[in-house]
Design goal:
This protein has 14 helices and two strands; from the N terminus they run βααααααααααααααβ. With 323 residues, it is mostly helical. Keywords: Lyase, Magnesium, Metal-binding.
């Protein structure tokens, strides 16, 4: 089996997105604190207190912790089979039962990091939100274990089935949970049909953007847990056609998000302000995810990012099976 070079054109998917690139004034402090935390796996309350900026900064720290834990879990389970992933996730899930009990040294590093993340998350959330946060994380763990099992049999799901699965494996809902806590949204508002629609749209936008940009990496790893891969396998499309199909669906979801926002009901002055803050945070999360893709080496090297800025062309090595 040989390789051939394939390319696809990558559109600027957020060209008309109304939430611009912004930088949180506390992001550098929070990033340093969380990087140090991940390096030594020790959450020192004194370190956080030295840089504390009240509730807003606490939420930012938890957001960093959440992303750190999700990336670690993703990287651990990406190389595991179904049985191994379930074992890893069972160890992680156990920390929610005893979050103040330090993990044994023989437990995987990600378990202790997750425990420390959850201890910090408890500090920004009421009890009912903690239960919701635990459910969200458990759904994510169950989905990653199922994804690992599917990888073993090289099964490609139908698109709607894939999207339902992807919403869980993405880890986006545990991330959005932090926004819910930061905005102190009441439970009935979080469960309101309009808010659920906006949350789902924002989640799908992140998924589509991520799937388009991560496809070369996923393809190289042999993974078909990706919208572009599903379009290729299920619809018989070319690579560019699969990317265009994904882009079209993505833009439809973006329009739905903006239309739903414009039709948002009014509650009262306080709640309306909290809801507006939540929606803005969703919009900025979509923007932040897109900017992150092009400012890190998770999916593209420095040279690839430079070429993308100049040509908008993504190169990918595809397998060529001899006839």
């Amino acid at each position: 089996m040989s390789l051939r070079l394939a390319t696809f054109q990558l559109s600027n998917l957020l060209k008309d997105w109304p939430w611009p690139r912004l930088r949180n004034p506390h992001s550098e402090e929070a990033a340093i604190a969380c990087t140090d935390w991940l390096k030594d796996s020790l959450l020192d309350p004194n370190d956080l207190e030295a840089a504390r900026r009240g509730y807003e900064f606490d939420s930012l720290i938890v957001a960093f912790h959440t992303l750190g834990v999700l990336f670690l879990t993703d990287d651990f389970t990406d190389v595991e089979n179904g049985s191994e992933a379930r074992s890893t996730n069972n160890i992680i899930a156990d920390i929610f039962v005893s979050p103040y009990q330090q993990r044994k040294k023989e437990d995987k590093y990600v378990a202790e990091v997750t425990r420390q993340y959850w201890v910090s998350a408890i500090g920004i959330s009421p009890w009912w939100q903690q239960e919701r946060g635990m459910r969200r994380f458990k759904e994510y763990l169950d989905a990653t274990a199922l994804e690992a099992s599917v990888r073993e049999i090289d099964y490609v799901r139908d698109f709607e089935d894939y999207l339902r699965m992807r919403r869980s494996t993405s880890g986006i809902l545990p991330s959005f949970w932090v926004i819910e806590c930061a905005q102190r949204l009441p439970e009935d508002i979080i469960k309101h049909e309009t808010i659920v629609t906006l949350t789902t749209c924002a989640m799908d936008l992140v998924i589509y953007d991520n799937d388009i940009c991560s496809y070369p990496k996923e393809h190289a790893a042999g993974s078909t847990h990706n919208t572009v891969a599903v379009a290729l396998h299920k619809f018989g499309l070319s690579l560019q056609e699969a990317v265009d199909w994904t882009t079209k669906r993505r833009q439809e979801v973006a329009r739905k998000f903006l239309t739903t926002r414009d039709e948002l009901p009014s509650w009262d002055k306080v709640l309306d302000k909290q809801v507006a803050g939540y929606i803005d945070a969703l919009g900025y999360w979509v923007r932040g995810n897109w900017e992150w893709v092009f400012e890190t080496t998770r999916y593209f090297t420095k040279e690839e990012r430079k070429r993308l800025q100049e040509t908008r062309v993504v190169e990918i090595q595809t397998k060529l099976v001899p006839s």
